[in-house]
Amino acid sequence: MQKIVNLAALIIMGLLYSFGKYLLLIRRVFSRPEKGSLYRKQILLEIDNLGIDSLGIVAIISVFMGAVVALQTAANIDSPLMPVWSVGFTTRQSIILEFSPTIVCLILAGKVGSRIASEIGTMRVTEQIDALEIMGINSAGYLIFPKIVASMLIYPILVVISMFLGIFGGFLATYFTGIVTIHNYIYGIEIYFEPYHVYYALIKTVVFAFIIASVSGFYGYYTKGGALEVGRASTKAVVYSSIMIILFNLILTQLLLD
Amino acid sequence: MIEAQNISKSFGDHQVLKNVTVQFEPGITNLIIGESGSGKTVLMKCLVGLLEVDEGQVLFDRRNFSGMSFGEKKHIRQEIGMLFQGGALFDSMTVEQNVIFPLSMFSKMSSEEKRDRANFCLNRVNLVNVNKLSPSELSGGMKKRVAIARAIAMNPKYLFCDEPNSGLDPRTSIVIDNLISELTKEYKMTTVINTHDMNSVIEIGDKIAFIYEGQLWWEGTNNEILTTDNKEINDFVYATELLRRLKT
Questions:
Q1: CB contact, 8 Å: B51 with chain A?
Q2: How near does any CA of chain B get to the CA of A145, in Å?
Q3: Chain A, nearest residue to B151 by Cα
Q4: What is the pTM of this model?
Q5: What are the DSSP calls for B87-127, one per residue?
Q6: Percent of chain B with pLDDT over 70
Q7: Which residues of B are less than 8 Å from A127 in CB distance?
Q8: ipTM
Q9: Cα-Cα-Cα-Cα dihedral of A21, A26, A28, A32, to 10°?
């Protein structure tokens, strides 16, 4: 029993230590930049690297996700009491509330998170971060701040695109399979629409974007060693970003949809 | 002048630097030498502020660098150029962008002026027609020279070089050594070189500090190091068969 308590205490201490280190890094990230114009240029570059580059995978996943949700909903509605527009309605709600903000962000945590961690981690082990520090540059701010801002700006746009494409995917599925008529699908899309659900999804996305960029930046920034450790940092970044996304998904849903 | 006064540094229970006091003079090449694991890299990292000292202080022209906050250190850091072991060039930038980078961050030069300064620095290290290349397209010696060009772009008062010859063939090593020595005299910089390359010691060691087991063991010039009867120095200097034969 004592061993279990000791182990739990060790784990908690480790988590608190990492969390404290993370907060200190975030404070450095948000300290005053050396030259605003260079940071603006970096933000634009990161919007391209972290957002526009991910458009393809977001589009493919969204279309197929929407199509599958529509088909699964249709397959599970056997009761004649359920209105036929339920397929469109369920597809829209699932896509807007959960699939686009959460699943797309989880996928981005894998794609972008590993990229951020490995990029910054490689810069650490090849002394490029030390070179920035020697020049008198706040390396944490220069490397991580543009990534956080870029992610928080571009991910909501990606998620809105994902919503449209997801619903369009459902439309394609109904059109080609004839599970419901196009008219009923579109009617289901339009009925009981609440714009607040889109705001809720976008708020979640902004929080998830912050988590992905900052957590991945944290693991990359504190990489020690060589190529092996860069790989480990990259894996940790994806795992912890995903866990944080799932955790905050629950918290935000409770707070915003209560 | 750079002064390290009674600096100590430990990692956990392991004390790497023990009460080291050493001065580095301007206009000459100051070498820190010692065996691998003797603490010379830790000493250099303490000098440039990449590691915090546990005890003692580091002074840059009598300014207490180790006692400054991160913001205060920025001003001195802009007077420091550093050549890293692997060059530490930014992969995402071209050669020219690497040299221009510190100028873009801290100077008010126009784009044209920055480009001119970058070209001047690249020419000074004998590199031409490489501006648009990326660091991955350069040889080891060229990377070192670009790193030197970047280090001198801001006209630094202090130049630090961490094992500038590692991974280079003997002839290229001499070219890099001579380049550093020439630039030191030309710009009257306080240059500190961390090395265990005996060619560098003989070629450009105006002042040499020998670190042994975390302590400053011996100080002298490149002429004195060959004639000293200090056992640890002799074990280090004449470690190779070639030098032992030359001695006898």
A1: no
A2: 16
A3: A135
A4: 0.88
A5: ----TTS-HHHHHHHHHHHH----HHHHHHHHHHHHHHTT-
A6: 98
A7: 84-86, 88
A8: 0.85
A9: -170
